[in-house]
Amino acid sequence: MAVSSPGNRRVWLITGATSGFGRALAEAVLADGDVVVGTGRHTGALDDLVAAQPDRLQVRALDVTDTAAAAAAVDDVVDRLGRLDVLVNNAGRTQVGALEETTEDELRYLFELHFFGPAAMTRAALPHMRRQGGGTVVQMSSVGGQVTAPGFAAYCATKFALEGLTQTLAQEVDFGVRFIIVEPGAFRTNLFAPGAAYQSTPMPEYAATVGPTRDYLHSDGTQPGDPAKAARAILTAVHSSDPPLRLVLGGDAVDGILERLSAMEAEVRQWEQLSRDTSITD
Question: Which of 141, 142, 200, 206 is an active site residue?
Fold first, then answer.
């Protein structure tokens, strides 16, 4: 069944909506009465939500690493529903491996998934949001977009890149589009479940540093964060008249980011005079 005309309802496009944060957010948005177009590589996982909300949920098979298809998906939503109010770039996966363990193909794929796909969808959404007078782009990053850990080099690099892009967009786009970077800590999203977390082939030379991170993958199901509460927090930020550029989710993420910022300030202060002394002397 086709999704009904949105009327006064907001239209959300959520990538990676079949599980984890994407699924939790789709459920929260539907509970609020809005319209959702949810995408994923395998959309059967959303059949139950479609059956329950056939007039407000539509699914679309999409691999965001196909940037042409990603951009076309945005245009198609606007063509069929008349507008796009909230774009959520959520599709992603965990990758663990030291840089030396990570192949060229693995590294490039992760950038296609976490950076080039969201960039293509955001670029496609901006003209529509400009014409309609505004909108919101939610970039699902991670505490790993601010805090690094051994074995997450490729993963953190993609999230750092996405955050740099989005922070710049918030400065250069002045026609009513808001940007929210979501930085979750450890949540029970099955991100580390078998088949969900990708691991590069290990090298014994990195057993001491990356080994504990690989072991951490076995902790799935013990994370402190509640995805449903995270989804409600994201909705609160989207509905706010003054949303944050960065929305940190989870006490572990708050603690890690504050510690990183404090350490960064201390290091800059320690070397401040040397840094300033590099200016040209008149």
Answer: 141
Amino acid code (one letter) for 224: P
Q: Tell me the CATH number at 38.
A: 3.40.50.720
Alpha carbons 269 and 153: distance in angstroms, whole number: 26
* Residue of 4, 19, 142, 155 marked active site: 155
Q: What is this structure's pTM? A: 0.94
In whole angstroms, give the CA distance from residue 210 to residue 148: 12
Residue for token pair 């957010």: 25
pLDDT bin (cut points 50, 70, 90) of residue 193 is low
Residue 175, SS3 per DSSP: coil
Supply the range of the domain harboring residue 201: 11-256
* pLDDT cut 90: percent of the chain above it: 87
Say if residue 154's pLDDT is above 90: yes
Confidence band of 1 (pLDDT split at 50, 70, 90) = very low
* Residue ranges with strand state E in 141-211: 177-184, 197-199
Q: Would 244 be classed as within a structural domain? A: yes
Give catalytic status of residue 155 as yes or no: yes
Asked if 229 is an active-site residue, the reply is no
Question: Residue 224 — pLDDT band, cuts 50, 70, 90?
Answer: confident
Residue 182 DSSP SS3: strand
Q: Which is catalytic among the residues 19, 142, 159, 200?
A: 159
> Each residue of 60-91: b (16+ CB within 10 Å) or e?
bebbbbebebbbebbeebbeebebbbbbbbbb
Q: How many domains does the chain have?
A: 1
